[in-house]
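Reopening this ticket.

The earlier resolution said the output was attached, but the attachment link was broken on my side. Pasting everything inline this time so it's all in one place.
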Amino acid sequence: MCYGVKDNHFFNTVTPTHCNTFFMDTLLDPEFHRYMIGSLFILAGVLHFLKPQFFMRIMPGYLPWHKPLVLISGFFEIAGGVGIMIPSFQAIAAWGLILLLLAVFPANIEMLRKYYRKDGLTLFTWGLIARLPLQFALIGWVYWAGL
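Inline output:
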């Protein structure tokens, strides 16, 4: 926490010091966020290869080739995650991740639909409902940090 120091003015006001600004500077630094975003997407992409059945179950039925599409999306999540951490690729990677987040949004809706039909309104389905607008917050985060 950053405490103030007393001025020698009439009212003995407290002015902020510059202690601990490293913490706030880091939290507000887009580069720090690019590494967080990159790590999350790399982890998610790897999970597509380790647990493809999970991702295949949430794909909308109207899409063909579930397993190849899961693996392709996993590859692009890894590529985007790595790319956003490399300055010369960060802008193209950010746009790619934003497009990927939009492309997989129907799978989020499908996952909610399937679990709601099966279990009704549970804590898990409420979490899936909350996840839908969070997808757009994630898009905003990638845009802010990467572009």
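Reporter confirms the inline version is readable. Residues 123-146 form the longest helix (24 residues). The longest strand covers residues 4-6.
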